[in-house]
């Protein structure tokens, strides 16, 4: 098998990121598709005590897009728009506007990640950032897998919500 050059590999990684997040893919709903049509009330519903809701999963996905971008660019830690890391207690208020704003945050973080991936130069995909155990390329396709995982989780939560409410 012929080895991909950096430009072709970056194009492929961008395609994988987009299919996992917002573009049509063979595997079914991507992350953005799984969130389409979800109301603030449904997003805030919890399947049980100490269980995450759809809203928290959406922000969690945005946070990890930020974390991967930060790792790729060397950006300062602690620069995410919300205080904390990984999981964020949501919602602070159940309103359609608050829900749309948090969905916009997810979209913004995806766009910023795409930009960072598109700016990578020859040889940077193979680099393992300081403090990480995997290469930049592995981080990038890993965040795409993360989106697909949570898209499936959201699909299940939507169905659970529909049968219990």
Topology:
Blueprint: H1 6-21, H2 31-35, H3 40-44, H4 54-73, H5 96-118, H6 136-164
Structure description:
- This protein has 165 residues and is an all-alpha fold.
- It has one domain: Up-down Bundle (Four Helix Bundle (Hemerythrin (Met), subunit A)).
- The protein is built from six helices and no strands.
- Helix 1 runs antiparallel to helix 5, helix 1 runs parallel beside helix 6 and helix 4 packs antiparallel against helix 6.
- The longest helix is centred in the last third of the chain and has 29 residues.
- The radius of gyration is 17 Å and the shape is globular.
Characteristics:
165 residues, mainly alpha, Four Helix Bundle (Hemerythrin (Met), subunit A), 6 helices, 0% strand, globular
CATH architecture label: Up-down Bundle
Q: What is the CATH class designation?
A: Mainly Alpha
Shape: globular
Distance between the termini: 52 Å
The name CATH uses for the topology is Four Helix Bundle (Hemerythrin (Met), subunit A)
* Helix percent band: 55-70%
- Specify Rg, calculated over alpha carbons: 17 Å
Mean pLDDT, to the nearest integer, reads: 93
